[in-house]
Amino acid sequence: MTTVSASWERVRAAVRPQRSGSVTAVVGLGVEVVGIPAAVGDRVRITAADGRRVDAEVVAVDGGSTRCMPLGPLTGITAGAEVLHAGSASLVPIGPTLLGRVLDGLGRPIDGHGPLAGAPRVALGNEAPSVLGRRRIDRQLGLGVRVLDTMTPVGVGQRLGLFAGSGVGKSSLMSMIARGSTADVNVIALVGERGREVREFLEDDLGPEGLARSVVVVATSDQPAMARLRCAFLATRIAEAFREDGREVMLMMDSLTRVAMAQREIGLSAGEPPATRGYPPSTFSVLAALLERAGTGPRGSITGLYTVLVDGDDHNEPIADAARGILDGHVVLDRALAVRGHFPAVDVLGSVSRVVGKVTTPAQRERAVVLRSVLAARRQADDLIDIGAYKQGANPLVDAAVTHQAAIDAFLTQSIDDLSTTEESWRHLTALTDTFEGRNA
């Protein structure tokens, strides 16, 4: 019966009238099309002058005119070029056959290991879990990184932002988490990444061990804005499928800022007015829709880790500010620490987890507060210490910071190959804070 039904559907598709139109203008990054009835989200196929077919997606409709954003280069597309309607929904691959594979933003394998045989396909769009259907976050997810597991604990199903400027170790930290987390599956989205760095990340940072339990989706910086945006939503849809199977998924996206920049290009090309720093209103609604799809579900979970590139190390720029308001916590990477060779360059005092009270015990939180107090006291006394004006005994917390500086740095720093279990990290923190004199002062 299934074979007959499938055959009948193919026959119906073959005899279905083909809707077609033509290009009237190619302006900037978009294509104006007339004569083809289509809805926002539909796909069209444009025939270039050399016979090449370019897929595009409808992003705006205005009367009889349709605005489309290409998924490939616009070279060779002329006014009057034929446009065919290619369907109302984009189907993307999902399932365990994707593990160990590298896909582009359209769901096509780019790792040279052949097609995705047997992978089921579903619509790219999906709804976020019901607000009352989400399970509460009540368990810690180990990341394998001491400073995160103790000072900014992550819960299963939490969404965490990694805020940093360029060149402070975001990719290295992500690779540590991919190899050291206790999640069942990693889904990694590299959005707007430099092409040179993709292979380095896969082979050097992630490695065969990390890739074996990961799905990597890549859209490099030279690809069209629609391909970069789809990369983020494709990775999220793949993660959702694993969550529906009851898996605990770690979804890592580098970076959320480049997703916003892709949506800015699309929105401005569709005719939206620029608002805050040139970002149209749709940018912020797209970010919210994307981030809300992560989290816990009735079965399984998606723990989201999203990097945010802060413009000029300004942590209050629009995208960073919007992301901070949506996410369940943020980790700040400090350039000053990176310059000193302190990796991971996590600013403990500037990082916050909003679920720490749900996933840790009172004793664990007390230990973390002790170390935070020592670090805060040291920061306040830095100027006095630097000029030699601080006198030993003036503040027990500062004394502890100065006396045990080497031990504190050894705890907070970690090489890329040195992974630590959550239990080991808490034991290390306990042993460290036990050595502080006057920790209750």
Radius of gyration: 25 Å
Structural category is alpha/beta
Largest sheet properties: 9 strands, mixed
Mean pLDDT: 89
Q: What is the strand tally?
A: 17
Helix content, binned percent: 25-40%
State the end-to-end CA separation.
Answer: 77 Å
Q: Indicate the low-confidence ranges by residue numbers.
A: none
Silhouette: elongated
Number of helical segments? 15
Amount of beta strand: 15-25%
Describe this structure in words.
The chain is an alpha/beta fold. It has 15 helices and 17 strands. The protein has helices spanning 2-15, 146-151, 170-180, 195-212, 225-244, 256-269, 281-292, 318-326, 335-339, 356-359, 362-380, 382-386, 396-403, 405-412, 422-434; strands at 20-27, 30-34, 43-47, 53-62, 65-70, 82-87, 91-93, 102-104, 121-123, 159-164, 185-193, 214-220, 248-254, 295-296, 301-309, 329-332, 352-353. Helix 11 crosses helix 13 (396-403). The chain is elongated. The protein starts with a helix and ends in a 7-residue tail after the last helix.
